[in-house]
C-alpha cells in the first residue's frame, strides 16, 4: 500500500518539477509546449501531477488550518506564544485582506486548477482508449471541483477558469456564489457519468471513481441547501433542496463501494487513521503522501508535523500547532459515552501510545490553559500520529508518510441524517447517524430525541481536525451565536476577504468582497 502511495506522490512531484525543466511548460497564462500531450502516458502523468499538488507545502500550512479550524471553537493556535502569532487573527476575526494566508491559499488552489485545466484542455486531443480518456478527464474535473469547493467556501465569489483560456487572458471578473457551485456540480456530474464505478485495484488505490464524484456532490448540495442559514438573501443556493441532497446520499449509501471501517472492533476509529488503513473502504478521497527509500522525502508534506507534539517527545517532534481548545476537550469529556472517539482523536500529554512511547512535549500551549490547575493538559491531534515502526525517517519532517483524509463515508452518513431530519424523516435519519455512533459505542439515538443540533454535534466530534468545523458553523448558522464573543460578525465573516495582493495584480478587474470594502 505504501509503495503505491509513494508512486502517486513521486509522479506528481516529477511532473511538477518538469514543468520548468525537461518538459519546458510555458508560463501560467499560455498553452504548454507541443513536446508534451502526445501519449496516454503523458495524460496519466498530468493527472498524477494533479494528485501530487494536493500535498504541496502551501496546501498544508496554516493556509488551511487557520481559517478552517482555528477560526472555529475546535482548535487554538497552540505551540509557543511567539510562534506564528499572526495565526491568532483568525481566532479573533481581526485579519485584513492583506494577511499572507489568504494570498497563499488563493495561489496554491489556482495553481492546482491550472494543472487540472492543462489536462482538461489537452487530453481530449491525445489518441488513446476513449473510455480511459474519459476516466482521466473525470479525475481532473473531480480535483478541480474539490479545489473550487475549497475556494467558494473560503471566499464566496471567485474566478472560474474552465480550461486554459484560448486568448491567454486571466484577468476576468469573479463569478457569483451560485455560478461557482453550479460549475462544481457540472464537473462532478461529468465525473459520475464517465469515471469507473468499480473500485481501483491495488495499483490504482487512491485514485477517484464515479462514486467519489457522487459523494462529493452530496456534500456540495448540502452547502447549497443550507444557504438560508448563511447567505444574505436568506435562500438556498441555486434553489437546491434537502430532497436533492437525500437523492444523492441514498444513492451513495445503497450503491457505492463505501463502508465504515470496523475491522478493529472498539479500536477501529483509532486504526482508521493509521498508515495501514489509508485508502480503505471508508475513504472517498485522500491526499496521497509518503516517503521512499529509493527516492527520499518525495513530497515533504507538512500535514502531520504542523500538528504533532512540540518539544521533546519519544515518538518524534512536531510543531504543536492547531491544537484542541479547552472548550472542545471539556465538551467532549461531557459526552460520557464518547470516550473511545475522544482518545482516538486527541493525544494528551502523558498518554501511552500504541508504539510504547509516552506523549511528552510542552507543558503549556498558546491559546489554551494547558498547564494550569483545573484545565486539560497539553494536547494534540491523534489523527496525525505515526507509530515508530511506520516512520520512514528519511526527513526531518515528522509524519511525512501520513495521508490526509479529505472525505470519508461517515461524512456522507451524517449528511444523509441531516437531509432526512430536515425532510421530517427522523426514522431514516437515525439509521444513518446511529451507524456512526455505533462504531464508537455511543448510545443509539431514538427518533423522538434526534435534533439538528445533535447531528451537528456528531459532525463536530466525528470530523474533528479534518478542516470542516468552521465552515459547518457558518453553514448551519451556529457561527452567528457561538463565535460572536470571538469577534465573528454576520454577514461579513461568512466569507473571507479576497487577497489584496490578487486585487492589486488584476488591473482593476478583481473586486473585493463587499463586506470588506
How would you briefly describe this protein structure?
The protein is built from 21 helices and six strands. The chain is mostly helical.
Q: What layout of secondary structure does this protein have?
A:
Blueprint: H1 2-18, H2 40-53, H3 57-60, H4 62-70, E1 75-78, H5 88-92, H6 100-122, H7 130-155, H8 177-194, H9 210-225, H10 227-230, H11 242-255, H12 268-272, E2 283-287, H13 303-307, E3 321-324, H14 326-334, H15 339-345, E4 346-348, E5 379-381, E6 404-408, H16 409-422, H17 426-439, H18 452-462, H19 469-476, H20 479-482, H21 500-505
Antiparallel strand pairs: 1-3, 2-6, 4-5
Descriptive overview:
This protein has helices at residues 2-18, 40-53, 57-60, 62-70, 88-92, 100-122, 130-155, 177-194, 210-225, 227-230, 242-255, 268-272, 303-307, 326-334, 339-345, 409-422, 426-439, 452-462, 469-476, 479-482, 500-505; strands spanning 75-78, 283-287, 321-324, 346-348, 379-381, 404-408. The chain is globular, with a radius of gyration of 22 Å. Helix 7 runs antiparallel to helix 8 (177-194) and helix 7 (130-155) packs parallel to helix 9. Helices cover 45% and strands 5% of the residues. With 517 residues, the protein is mainly α.
